[in-house]
Structure formats: C-alpha cells, structure tokens
Design goal:
The protein is mainly α. The relative contact order is 0.15. The mean pLDDT is 96.
C-alpha cells in the first residue's frame, strides 16, 4: 500500500505539474508566428507524448525514491524535473528560445545521467527514461532550429 501511494504521488507530481505548467504557459500567437523547421510536429502531438512521458517519469521517480530517497539518482531525478518544468515558461512565456536552450541542454544531460545512475540497480527505471531522453533530444534539436531560424 505504501508503494502504491508513493507511485500515485510521483505520477501526480510529474503529470500534474506538467499539465499545470503547460496550461499556464500556452504557446499562443507568438509561437504560431515563428519560422519552424520541416521536422516540427503538429501541435496536437505534444500533449499526448508529454502525458505518456510524465507517467513514465513519475513511475521511475517513485521506484528510485523507494530504493533511496537521498541517493544520487533521486537528486538527479529532482534536478531534471525542475529543469523540465522551467523550460516551458522560459520558451513560451518569456519567448526566449535562446535561454530555453540553456535549460534544455542541462535537462538532456540530467536525463542521461539518471539513466546511467539507475542502469545497474533499477534497469526498469532507467529504461523508462530512454523515450524521455529521445524526446528531449528531439526537442533540443527543435529548440535550436527555432532559435536559429528566428534569430
């Protein structure tokens, strides 16, 4: 029962936080007016992808907390979550793709560090972060191209 509560808490933190951040920092007209690269996905893709990723992030967070609340992997989990939640307001609300790059590159690095730290002790948590790393890698390239095309 304790682990179920922990799981619900972490999924609620990551998914709920992501939804709240997304709703309070909507892309809007500014984003629509930007030049975008040909590989920019349609806007409707982002919500479902991020929702699925936030569930995986939350599960990995709960599993990591259960193994060691003060572990290096848990610290990195919280760092990546803070960077993840910081990116949207920097990019969309502040309208600063340049500063968003300063957030997303360390975000990607922290995701990769989490994978490395959990690979031997909790392979499942590590594997839950692999699609997240792929998506944030893609988002980093997209962020860079949007910045480059609109600088």
């Amino acid at each position: 029962m304790r682990n179920l509560r922990l799981l619900v808490l972490f999924v609620a933190l990551s998914l709920g936080g992501g939804i709240l951040i997304g709703l309070s920092n909507a892309p809007g007209e500014w984003y629509e007016s930007l030049a975008k690269p040909p590989f920019n996905p349609p806007n409707w893709v982002f919500g479902p992808v991020w929702s699925a990723l936030y569930v995986l992030i939350g599960i990995a967070g709960a599993r990591t907390w259960a193994r060691g609340a003060g572990s290096a992997a848990m610290i990195v989990w919280f760092v990546q979550m803070a960077l993840n939640f910081a990116w949207t307001p920097v990019f969309f609300t502040a309208q600063r793709p340049d500063l968003a790059l300063v957030v997303i590159v360390p975000l990607l690095l922290s995701i990769l560090v989490f994978i490395a730290l959990t690979w031997r002790r909790d392979r499942l948590s590590s594997l839950f972060f692999v699609p997240y790393a792929a998506w944030v890698g893609f988002a980093t390239a997209l962020n860079f191209e949007i910045w480059r095309l609109n600088a």
